[in-house]
Design a protein that fits this description.
The chain is an all-alpha fold and 77 residues long. It has one domain. It has two helices and no strands. It is rod-shaped and about 75 Å long.
Length: 77
């Protein structure tokens, strides 16, 4: 059985550590991306729940503008 030195044992451990460091980096990046996606989807859903859809908000603005235009025609300033 060959005699291994402490340096040889440490280099094997270091090499193995480098391999798993890449996996940890990829897993961390994937987790960060997933959390960002969930946060963005949650923000969009909450905005739609509170303010309505983009189409509903545009319709509200158009109705408001039409109401003001009608009031202006009935009684000009």
């Amino acid at each position: 059985m060959p005699v291994t030195t402490a340096l040889a044992r440490n280099s094997v451990k270091l090499h193995g550590g480098w391999q798993t460091a890449g996996v940890v980096f990829v897993a961390d990046a994937l987790g960060e991306w997933l959390i960002e996606q969930l946060a963005d989807a949650g923000r969009k859903k909450l905005t739609e729940l509170i303010l309505g859809s983009e189409q509903e908000r545009a319709l509200r603005r158009a109705a408001d503008a039409a109401g003001w235009a009608t009031a202006e025609e009935i009684e000009p300033i």
